[in-house]
Amino acid sequence: EIMQTMDKVICMNQPEAEALRDYLPEERLTVLPHGVDTTYFQPVSDPPPEPFSLGFFGAYHHYPNIDAVFYFVDKIFPQIKERVPEARFYIIGIHPPPEIVALGERPDITVTGFVPDIRPWLARCQVIVAPIRQGLGMRVKMLEAMAMAKPLVATDLACAGLDIVDGQHGMIANTDESFAESVCYLLQDRTCAEGFGRASRQLVEENFNYTSVGKRLEELYLSMIHKK
Known about the structure:
Layout: E1 9-11, H1 14-20, E2 29-31, E3 53-57, H2 63-83, E4 88-92, H3 98-101, E5 109-113, H4 119-124, E6 127-130, H5 140-147, E7 152-154, E8 171-172, H6 176-188, H7 190-207, H8 210-227
Parallel strand pairs: 1-2, 3-4, 3-6, 4-5, 6-7, 7-8
Helix pairs in contact: 2-6
């Protein structure tokens, strides 16, 4: 009822727009994604990533991030360790609950808690993982990692609205077996991983940087003003 009183409804991705098409006329729906500061988030080559390091980052008062961590640690990480025993997992971000903090007692897992600057931690990781299974919207964390040209392994849900093509910008995996296999592949094939990182950076620069998203939002506002 509230949306039907609006002149325009902005959705962050196409699936959300599709979900509203039974409620609103097509002309009142617009898809406009989140953006990222591609000047602030840039690729870093020095120091190089820590070998066999994996990272997941987010705010852990958001339950889908908690679920992703435990899904990874319980189902995916053991399979990775079988193939790459040196693998290490960094759980990065604010408000980790006690059950996540406790994971840091393992020698192959680091829980950082709050960090003043996420970029050095992203740079440290050889591969960024996003085993997201719950939630809606766009994952800004994905855009930040992509802007830093980090190779990604993620679920379809984590990639929603990001135009990521499997095998071009990263690897999409929706089972624990395929996720583990994809991570191991990128840990061992540096050339492929770096290629995915460059393609991700280019995608963000072209479609998701603050300047282009802001311009589209400004054009939308101006079009609404002119209708008045």
